[in-house]
Amino acid sequence: MDSNQFYQTIKILQDKVSDLEAENADLKERQKHCQLEGVLPLVQKPLYFKYTLEVLKNIRRYILEKRERYLAGLVQIQSYLLSFEHPETVFTKVLEIIGQCSQATRVYLYQNYFDSEKGLLATQKYVCHNSALNSDLAQKEILDYERSFPRWLKILGQGNFLAEEVKQLPPSERLFFRDQNIDKILLLPLIVNGNFWGFLGLEYGGKQRLWENSEITLLESIVGAISLVLQRREAQTNLENLNQELEIRVQKRTAELELKNSQLQQEIVKHEQTMAALQKAKEQLEVVLDAVPASISWISSDLRYLGVNKHLADQVNLTPEDFINKLVGGPKSHYEFMSYLINFFKSDLDKSTAEFMIKNGDQENTFLMVAKKYDQGEAAVLVGIDISDRRRAEEALSKSAALNQAVLNAIPDSMFYLTENGTFLRCKIANENELPFNCTRLLNQNIAQVLPAQITDKFKQAMAQTIATEETQLMEFQLLNSQNLLIDWEVRIALSHQDKVVAIWRNITEKKQAELSLKLSEEKLRSTFEQAAVGIAHTDLNGHWLRVNKKLCQIVGYSRSELLESDFQSITHPDDLELDRKSIQKMLSGELSTCVIEKRYLHKQGFPVWINLTVSLVRDGEGKAKYFIAVIEDISNRKQTAQALKESSSRLKMALEAANMGTWQWNLVNKQLFWSEQSRVLFGFNKPNLSFTYQEFLNCIHPKDREKIEQAIAYSLENKSAYFQEYRIIKPGEKIHWIASQGDVFSDSQEQEISLIGIDMDITERKQSEEEMRKSLVKEKELNQLKSNFITMTSHEFRTPLSTILGCAELLEYYGEQWTNQKKQKYLTRIYTTVQNLTKMLDELLLIGKSESGGFEFEPTLLNLSEFCINLVQEFNLGEHHRISFNIEPNNSEILTSNYLFDQKLLRHILTNLLSNALKYSSDQVNFNLIIAQNKASLSIQDQGIGIPPDDLKQIFESFHRGKNVGKIPGTGLGLAIVKKAVDIHGGKIQIESQVNQGTIVTVTFNFNHSY
Description:
6-stranded antiparallel sheet; elongated
């Protein structure tokens, strides 16, 4: 709690003192009024007048004395709370003052705490006995809410006070006050930071006790001040803890600085060592220059050699000394090279780079010449590097870049180039509808402007890590796209330049859905080698084992490490080595790519093992043999192995079906579509073959989506680009299904289209979820409109009556002493009426709130409907000059005495709202008819008022809706909404007929099964 809140609380207490003084003045005025008007004539009842006057004086004296006690006590409490330093002393003094003001036998303060075994308990923190009343009550230190005082927990926990006589308390609570002569108790809750902290209790013994509203209000204000003080105390404790934590951090930081200082000293020593090493390296420079595979020379400004390295001298079969003071030149480029050097020495440039083409036989080589001046420009160092291979590599790279660009365009990912601070420079968008931001205004914006804060922070951390380590960073997160669909994204951040990165966005929603299937597939692939029922091995071309699986080790009895240290010839039966040799020669010569033989291995224990060996030769892209793959099957377990392979194939098929994905290929040569089995299931085809025509495919598509699909496919074929579309299909005999389809064009080496290949997925459930989400958004919009209407209504309807109350109160304050009692009564009556109207509006708001949350309580009881209506009309006619005409049909004794099941409270809401509306919007007579016939009651209310416009009739039962023609007639727009819900809960119907300026007829009909 800050100082402003604390002093505001003190101001509230001071306002309460002013209210008490105002009540004191009002009491004097009432006494005066009683003497003038309310006392019987002295001639008729002299003794009674004397007695009454004496009682009034005693009451006045008692009230004044009590108020003076509270006023004096309040001043003391203010001073103690303002100088709050020692909680124990302050709270003890405050309780003592409260006890003196309230003349309580005992005042105490309890604080709540939670016990893991007993639940919520309360312990007594401070207590004060009124010694003047000779109280010797026992200490009550611990309270168990759940076992003894659940009612206290419910009332006090909701912020309400509890004031009762002890003898009326439940038995478990009365035990608390047993043998203590306590007659009454008053408990007030302490709320700290919105939580039930404890309570303040007052006990009275040996006398009757009644509490006035002003007294309860004052005590609640004092409790509120105590709560704020406790809140401030908790805040101070938290601040002290933060200061201690800060001190620890400062100490830790100091230690870190000392450590860094020590490290800096060590670096200085290393620097000195480095300088010594640098001197030594300088001496080794000449050796290094001679070893450099580049032509290095030193020339003067008059273009004569000062020296060359050994590499340059060796190229022309000379020694470095042969070049000294010789004129610079170059084969077949003498004049071009000389001109370059002359211009270089004449220029102000300190460094220059040039390329020279030198033809050596039939081959032209490109040299990069780098010239650097020294000795104040009087000499220069020339370094010539043969970059022919680099030029050829650049040309190859250019071709590769073109190929890479084509591949990049075919990748279904979005790419963004960003600066190190997160600003977008350029982008390549794959599917704009998937992205969670507007791509048209993306450039030159920062990621913080288009992404949520928590993702922006992670994004920038990943960018910084990429720039610092030059390693690609991977992120995964979820975002809503422009269609409010939750998309899983995978973003790879790679270094593009020194201070720029490229972020590759990929939609992995489908990938996430298929991760489980992929994981199972990967496990199967691993188990294919390690857990397969056959032995699998890789060997080099000489037969040495490179990789073996567990099954092979089991077949031959050797461990994995033992096999990897040997070759397959060492465990092959001698009689089968020649067969192995011939098979290997045939595969190496290209005669066979795979061979299958039956042979024998020698088990580690010495006995032969017959195996079925399948060997394949793996070659690289140039056809060069790399290694062998061998599959070794124990022939005795052949059937078991076959069964295992069959089960593995079945699991793989189940995984593909679980992914609910189908594949297809459209041959652009013969115009045939080839579908996988799962694709046929998706589209509902019953043809036994897998080949279909393009027209058959179009016939499956919903007519409204066909043109869109045809255009997308045509665009993909024309631009050789990938496409992604979502469309509807009509399966035979079934409802419409949604399909997500993605495809791409595959071309041959002559860049001619061969086929369009793609995948299909049934996304019907996702589309249904999107539709449900859209409906939810519409519902949320309606709720927002309802909240807006509520704010508008409360702002308008509450401001006027509150202004009326404030104006009347100010007039009474400033002119009350000058006005007559009659005029004062006029303004008091206006305040009373306005408060009643506000109360009515609040009741309607609470009632509509209960109805919206399903909190309407329906409690039907037997009710004489005729008598109920007659009494209600009489109540209205008392204040409306008999404007309501009531009629009952049929008007006989049976109807007048019959009872029916109604919720009397809800029925009163229905009729009161309808009659009030009729009287409010009409100045003429209102007709109210009750017709009971055939187990049905019809209540009709007709007025001759302003009527309801046709457009408003459609929304007349919506909360906060009012007709356009009501003008300045007050109202909340809740009455008919409450009536409609109350009628519905009775199972009845309501009908409204109305014409503008001609009146309205509202008819409510109830059906009932039994009459009494």
